[in-house]
Specification:
The protein is mainly β. The chain is built from 2 helices and 47 strands.
């Protein structure tokens, strides 16, 4: 039996119109059918296949290398799609309604993943035309397995990626698209594809179960919603699953993930919200669950939005020294959640820069961090217990926290920033802090069995509290403090015997309308100190700049210091804003 292609009546009409108008006929989709069990003869009057089983975007249209009147059309069926026979094929225009050509096809079975013979299937048909220049390929990046230049910028040029619509995702926000996205993720495992494309210009995807993605990969959208715009709006992943919407790693070890030498995950330009029928603050958008400890695991969250969730990102704890080697969060809009970013597993280094993280009831950034933690140029507003650096019971290298250029406003809770991990160093420069709303007190770390830093910026009690400190630096206009009710201290430092220095440099000013009362430490009473009180270590020279006027004299209750306690300083130097030494 011969297999051939016919241009349909509608196709001929389209060609004639295109030639008369000096335009081209768009070839956009290829459909596949099983012919209801037999191989049908191509009928030029047909408007549909006898029994269509699958449709996909055309991947390539080109003139045959040996015959200029032959037009070769190619489409790809991904490995995760199957379970049907192919006996008939058709081409459609960009509307998806006009059949341009129909072909008979040698019987071909497309297996499923479960059948153990999953593979990518490439289908080609040839059209004979008088003028191949009358045709053009119109690529719909939402549905075609195409080069990434169609769907992403030059960074991804030449890479293969997959649209979830190719796997049957509807994107209407009503039908469960979990299976489609999971099939896409399975194909990424089997076919070594490293990108998943989720078009979200006018779409929203309902997920009633967790999509597990084992392969380190990039999951990205286009023009996703950057903030919550209300029920019925488009541009989101709608989380209706018991677990997270996406589970990256799926509790797999590196060896189980095809021996990948480096695990680099990226989620970019996607928005997440819970289903409107679900209680807010109960769902997780993205969870990183890979188990293996290693220095080469990284995660990037970029241009992602999340609202009314429990967490937008959760790093799962597997009890290893380095659950995640690097974490980068940039240009995200995360609001109205419980805790925006929660790292239960240890993160070795993190960079959180240029984000708007606001109105998160229990915190913006909480987690187990050591090594370098950079928090720069973020809007951190209206949240409870904004930043909490937790203790790490495996690795005790401590955390170097760099705070620079952040805007803190109208935050509340027990603290603004709290650190209770081991051997911390804090550097702060050019942060704006305004409008604390807390009515709670200090809850210092009670574990005195080993040196512990407890860095606490509180709202009504202490602006900066450091317990067993190692090194603290506020540089430049480190804290622009306005209209805060500081009942105890603006700055209180109780160093460990390993304490190196506290530096308060340059023009730390703009201390406007801040109230303070008599200071108390248990039964130790200090009279009005102005805004700085420093308790140092024996033999340590502390050069501090008093943030009140030059007339304020530091008066210390003599009983507060004991010569027998070598951990307390024997002398204290205070320099006023005019660089004059004040008596003590």
């Amino acid at each position: 039996m011969s297999y051939y292609t016919k241009i349909t009546t509608a196709g001929l009409a389209a060609i004639t119109a295109a030639m008369n108008n000096s335009s081209k006929v768009p070839i956009t989709y290829m459909a596949f059918g099983d012919g209801n069990g037999y191989i049908p003869e191509p009928d030029e009057n047909a408007t549909s296949l006898l029994n269509e089983v699958y449709r996909v975007g055309v991947n390539k249209v080109e003139v045959h290398s040996k015959n200029p009147n032959w037009l070769v059309c190619e489409a790809i069926i991904p490995s995760a799609v199957g379970g049907f026979n192919i006996r008939e094929v058709a081409l459609y225009d960009s509307t998806g309604n006009t059949m341009l050509a129909i072909a008979s096809y040698p019987p071909t079975y497309k297996p499923t993943v479960e059948e153990g013979a999953a593979k990518i299937q490439t289908i080609r048909i040839v059209i004979q035309v008088d003028n191949s220049g009358s045709f053009e390929l119109i690529v719909d990046p939402d549905v075609v397995l195409a080069t990434a230049q169609y769907v992403q910028d030059e960074v991804f040029k030449g890479q293969s990626n997959v649209s979830v619509k190719q796997y049957g995702a509807k994107g209407d926000g009503l039908h469960d698209d979990h299976l489609a996205l999971q099939n896409n993720a399975t194909a990424m495992d089997l076919d070594q594809l490293t990108y998943m494309f989720i078009p979200c210009r006018q779409e929203s995807y309902l997920l009633k179960d967790t999509v597990v993605i084992n392969m380190p990969s990039m999951i990205f959208g286009n023009r996703a919603a950057t903030y919550y715009r209300g029920v019925g709006k488009k541009g989101y992943i709608i989380v209706d699953s018991e677990g997270p919407a996406f589970d990256l790693g799926g509790d797999k070890n590196t060896a189980e993930r095809l021996g990948n030498p480096a695990d680099q995950w990226t989620v970019k330009n996607i928005g997440f919200i819970p289903h409107p029928d679900q209680l807010p603050l109960t769902k997780v958008a993205i969870q990183h669950s890979a188990k293996t400890n290693g220095p080469d695991r990284g995660f990037i969250l970029e241009e992602v939005s999340g609202s009314r969730l429990k967490n937008v990102l959760h790093i799962k704890d597997h009890g290893v020294q380095t659950q995640l080697a690097t974490l980068v969060v940039e240009k995200c809009t995360i609001s109205n959640n419980s805790i925006a970013i929660l790292a239960d597993g240890n993160v070795f280094g993190a960079r959180i820069v240029g984000n708007q993280i606001e109105q998160n009831s229990s915190g913006c950034i909480h987690g187990v961090f050591h090594a370098a933690l950079t928090i720069h140029d973020n809007m951190l507003e209206g949240s409870g217990n904004t930043i909490y650096i937790k203790d790490h019971n495996i690795d005790r290298n401590g955390c170097y926290l760099s705070l620079e250029g952040n805007y803190f406003e109208l935050n509340y809770g027990d603290y603004l920033i709290k650190m209770d991990s081991y051997k911390n160093t804090i550097f702060s420069k050019g942060n704006y802090v305004s409008g604390f709303l807390s009515s709670d007190g200090i809850t210092p770390n009670t574990d005195r069995n080993r040196p512990t830093d407890h860095f606490l910026l509180t709202n009504t009690y202490t602006m900066v509290y450091i317990y067993d400190a190692l090194s603290v630096t506020f540089y430049g206009s480190a804290s622009l403090l306005e209209k805060n009710n500081l009942d105890k201290y603006l700055l209180y430092v109780e160093p460990s015997k390993y304490f190196k220095e506290i530096g308060l440099y340059k023009d730390i000013n703009r201390l406007e309308n801040n109230s303070y009362l008599t200071k108390n430490i248990g039964n130790k009473v200090l009279t009005e100190l102005g805004e700085i009180y420093v308790l140092g270590t024996s033999g340590t020279y502390i050069n501090s700049k008093l943030l009140s006027s030059a007339n304020d004299i530091l008066e210390i209750n003599a009983s507060f210091f004991s010569n027998s306690d070598e951990d307390y300083i024997q002398y204290l130097t205070v320099i006023d804003t005019n660089n004059n030494r004040l008596p003590s």
